[in-house]
Amino acid sequence: MNRSILKPIIAGVLIGAALFFIPFFVLRVVTVVLIVGLLFRLFGRRSWGPGNRRQERFTRFADKVRNMTDEEYAQFKERFQYGCGGHRNTTAAQ
């Protein structure tokens, strides 16, 4: 009888200790993941340096507009007169 009571008591103590200590470990893991993610975001290759794709894309677009003929430029201005959508917002004018 002593042995049958002892097993549930030990199991309960182990489960209770696990439920008590797991949030501390999870909080530490989440904190480390957030810090590492922040470091990659701040010092990652995509944000600055020779791999800056935004600057390259803007430079290509500017070169394309500079090299347009007068007819192409007039068509470009007419096409993007109202922004990227290509159509005027009629609800704002009313």
How would you characterize this protein structure?
- It is a single chain.
- This protein has helices at residues 2-43, 53-66, 70-79, 90-93.
- The chain is mainly α.
- The mean pLDDT is 81.
User: Could you tell me the strand content as a percent range?
Assistant: under 5%
Give the tally of β-strands: 0
Q: Which range best describes the helical content: under 10%, 10-25%, 25-40%, 40-55%, 55-70% or over 70%?
A: over 70%
How large, in whole angstroms, is the Cα Rg? 31 Å
The SSE string, one letter per element, is HHHH
List the uncertain runs. Answer: none
Q: What is the overall silhouette?
A: rod-shaped
Q: Mean pLDDT, rounded to whole units?
A: 81
Number of helices: 4
Main sheet attributes: strand count, strand direction, barrel closure: none
**Termini separation:** 86 Å
Structural class by SSE content: mainly alpha
Write the SSE topology:
Elements: H1 2-43, H2 53-66, H3 70-79, H4 90-93
Key phrases:
single chain, 94 residues, mainly alpha
Kindly summarize this structure in a few lines.
74% of the residues lie in helices and 0% in strands. The protein is mostly helical and 94 residues long.
